[in-house]
Design brief:
This protein has 146 residues and is mostly beta strands. The protein is built from two helices and twelve strands; from the N terminus they run H-E-E-E-E-E-E-E-E-E-E-E-E-H. A hairpin with a 6-residue loop joins strand 2 and strand 3. Bound molecules: thymidine-5'-diphosphate. Thymidine-5'-diphosphate binds next to strand 4 and strand 5.
């Protein structure tokens, strides 16, 4: 069967789950995350989403240079991923797992459970010019890179 270059080398497949160490203990479990060991970049910034009202979504953008790992610290939510060609949905609901998202992936966070907390480890400081917030601009930028 003929497989196109795009299908062989899907950027969406670079989005992957990273499992962190889990020290189970009857007193309560412990997980730790080390920059450049468990995370494939140096962590420059941490932010978190909380108090998300039912039915709301976050994200809805892509980043030029930023890489991220998203962790469901509490509760659950779904991450919709789109590399401009292929799409996939990853459900996060374990605080010892993170979703690595490389550059130039459109993402949306949806279906937050009540009380859920999403923590994001980021490779860069906040920079508003690093965002594509318009989907058509994101697609046009991908085409320019081809
Ligand atoms: P945004 O990245 O759009 O949030 P999300 O992707 O989670 O929906 O950011 C929302 C607002 O917060 C926007 O005005 C930029 C600001 N912001 C910062 O000032 N610093 C940060 O580190 C982040 C992530 C956002």
């Amino acid at each position: 069967m003929y497989i196109s270059e795009k299908e062989c080398n899907m950027r969406i497949d670079e989005c992957r789950i990273i499992q962190f160490p889990k020290i189970t203990d009857p007193r309560g479990n412990l997980t730790f995350v080390e920059s450049q060991r468990h995370i494939p970049f140096t962590i420059k910034r941490v932010y978190y989403l909380y108090d998300v009202p039912g039915g709301e979504s976050r994200g809805g953008h892509a980043h030029k240079s930023l890489q991220q790992v998203i962790i469901a610290m509490s509760g659950s939510f779904d991450v919709l991923l789109d590399d401009g060609v292929n799409k996939k949905t990853v459900s996060l609901n374990r605080s010892y797992m993170g979703l690595f998202i490389p550059t130039m992936i459109w993402r949306e966070l949806v279906n937050f459970s009540s009380g859920s907390v999403s923590m994001v480890l980021a490779s860069e400081y906040y920079e508003k010019d690093d965002y594509y917030r318009d989907y058509n601009e994101f697609i046009a930028a991908l085409k320019r890179k081809e």
